[in-house]
Amino acid sequence: MSSFALRVPTAHAGLQIQPNGHCFIVLPAHETTLRDLISRKVRAEWHKLVGTGAFASSLLDLTGPLDRVETMDVAVVVQHALAAWERGAFLVLLGMQPLVDLDAPLTVTRESRILFVVVPPEPIQVIALRPEQLRAA
Description:
By secondary structure, this protein is of the alpha+beta class. It is 31% helix and 20% strand. It is built from four helices and six strands. The strands form two sheets. It has a four-stranded mixed β-sheet, with no helix packed on it. A two-stranded antiparallel ribbon has the order 1-3. A hairpin with a 2-residue loop joins strand 4 and strand 5. The longest helix is centred in the first third of the chain and has 19 residues. The radius of gyration is 17 Å and the shape is globular.
């Protein structure tokens, strides 16, 4: 069975892609699922964290805070990430489309663009002030 590698970054909503959030995941050259993409991304980030430290990985953005994550079984870490996705802690975009079903079949090619986007825990509010309000502040 053939496979290929894709560079898969992590970004925070409204911000640039994290310098430590890039990793390569190897994908089969046939259909996959969002569950599989999350698992592969988390495993790649976990290996980066174990090999070079937390500063080099976006793993904790995908799982939430975990004590001693580097000593945990990676399958448990994947389950934490899947639970984080289910509660809306991050999105996964294929192209510019958010993926919404963990088990729906997906076709990913070498040309595909996948992005993991961390969603802030609190909604970001944009407040518009009139000029006189700014002077009074």
